[in-house]
Design brief:
alpha/beta; 11 helices; binds nicotinamide-adenine-dinucleotide; binds uridine-5'-diphosphate-4-deoxy-4-fluoro-alpha-D-galactose
């Protein structure tokens, strides 16, 4: 294990801590930055990440995202290069810090890859999550914010998608099922012991970057998702965008999604943490994080061209297997319970993505 040295016998620091699994990744790093920028010095951030989908410069102890956040905030992040499935290592993290609650981002997330590697996905996402919960329980930690996804709703039976929409039916891939299974496990856990407080945040489509342009999304290989693909076309790394289907029943025939700025998501996590102080927040709560507005693929292209001043060539290709036509959130529960609303516009999402991409054409390795 790299990063902090583990102390087998005692906690090295008794300051209250938030454990962030997968905190070196895209949504995790923005949430860590937001928390450090906004919380007092009486709380510390501990990150566990196995770096399977995040970048560390040769010779550095910490991944680049966390190193930059430390530089931006002047605060220290306790980092453990370890896998959430490594029970002994996870126990030592909980022994070393006074963990109060956990934000659990760590997971594999490539939908297509999950179809060809289902065991790896269930191992990391389901088994890993169970291991984390066992270790939390053993250390008396019962407060959890979980990274879920609107994918758990499957093919929408009605729109907008609110939290009462059925989940689990018609899921088309192991990744989506792994998120659904974890939600069911968390419900069982909460039913088994009233001490648990779990907030499962169902993200719609996270995009954008920190307004500084210093941290952002850094996919390995060719991006699977629309926004990083568009950004890489705009910066000249990729030639043209393939638009997956132009015959959906939408405004222009292309797929419609609810894109939400990653900084808004970060604020949503802070809102969820604040709820743990309220007694009504015991048990399992699923909450959508989206804007409530959908944009088509071609509307995204136009917005990105406007923000970047670059042309984004595209051509129509076949529909992608498993894609739904339209998907957007009813985000009113988040407003009522977390006091959260997505504040950033599509223009903000594109401008912030472009600031990151244009200054880091090859991501953190630039
Ligand atoms: P990401 O891949 O950028 O971040 C995940 C981080 O977890 C990475 O740094 C990776 O190295 C780490 N990790 C993976 N498996 C691990 C393991 N077994 N042990 C320790 N660390 C591990 O992904 P992201 O986009 O930041 O997504 C974060 C979470 O949000 C995931 O749970 C994902 O399923 C969920 N989510 C993401 C999206 C999206 O479109 N980005 C949408 C909905 C939900
Ligand atoms: N699209 C293209 N070309 C591309 C990539 C995407 O036309 O190269 C289209 C898709 O067909 C879809 C839209 O752009 O209509 C958005 O696609 P993304 O892959 O960016 O996002 P999805 O809505 O398919 O899925 C994403 C994540 C999932 C997550 C889901 C809901 O990939 O992990 O959002 O949170 F589950």
């Amino acid at each position: 294990m790299g990063g902090d040295t583990l102390n087998e016998d005692k906690r090295i620091d008794m300051t209250r801590a938030i454990l962030v699994t997968g905190g070196a990744g895209y949504v995790g790093s923005h949430t860590v930055a937001y928390l450090l920028e906004n919380m007092g010095n009486d709380l510390e951030i501990v990150v566990v990440d196995n770096l399977i989908n995040s970048y560390r410069k040769p010779g550095q102890k910490k991944p680049e995202s966390l190193r930059i956040i430390e530089d931006m905030t002047g605060k220290t992040i306790h980092f453990y290069n370890c896998d959430i499935r490594d029970v002994q290592a996870m126990h030592r993290v909980f022994q070393n810090h006074l963990i109060e609650c956990v934000i659990h981002f760590a997971a594999l997330k490539a939908v297509g890859e999950s179809v060809t590697k289902p065991l790896e996905y269930y191992q990391a996402n389901v088994s890993g999550t169970c291991t984390l919960f066992e270790v939390m329980r053993d250390h008396g930690v019962h407060k959890l914010v979980y990274s879920s996804s609107c994918t758990v709703y499957g093919e929408p039976q009605r729109l907008p998608l609110d939290e009462t929409h059925p989940t689990g039916a018609g899921l088309t891939n192991p990744y989506g099922r792994s998120k659904y299974f974890c939600e069911e496990i968390m419900k069982d856990l909460c039913a088994s012991d009233k001490k648990w407080s779990v907030i499962s945040l169902r993200y719609f489509n996270p995009v954008g970057a920190h307004p500084s342009g210093r941290i952002g999304e850094d996919p390995r290989g060719t991006p699977n998702n629309l926004m990083p693909y568009i950004a890489q076309v705009a910066v000249g790394r990729l030639e043209e965008l393939q638009v997956f289907g132009s015959d959906y029943p939408t405004v222009d025939g292309t797929g419609v999604r609810d894109y939400v700025h990653v900084q808004d998501l970060a604020e949503g996590h802070a809102g969820a943490l604040a709820c743990f102080n309220k007694t009504e927040f015991t048990g399992f709560h699923a909450i959508n994080l989206g804007t409530g507005t959908g944009y088509s693929v071609l509307q995204m292209v136009a917005a990105f061209e406007a923000a970047s001043g670059k042309r984004v060539p595209w051509r129509v290709a076949a529909r992608r297997a498993g894609d739904v036509a339209v998907n957007y959130a009813d985000a009113s529960l988040a407003a009522r319970t977390l006091g959260w609303r997505a504040r950033r516009t599509l223009a903000d999402m594109c401008a912030d993505t472009w600031r990151w991409q244009s200054t880091h054409p090859h991501g953190y390795a630039t």
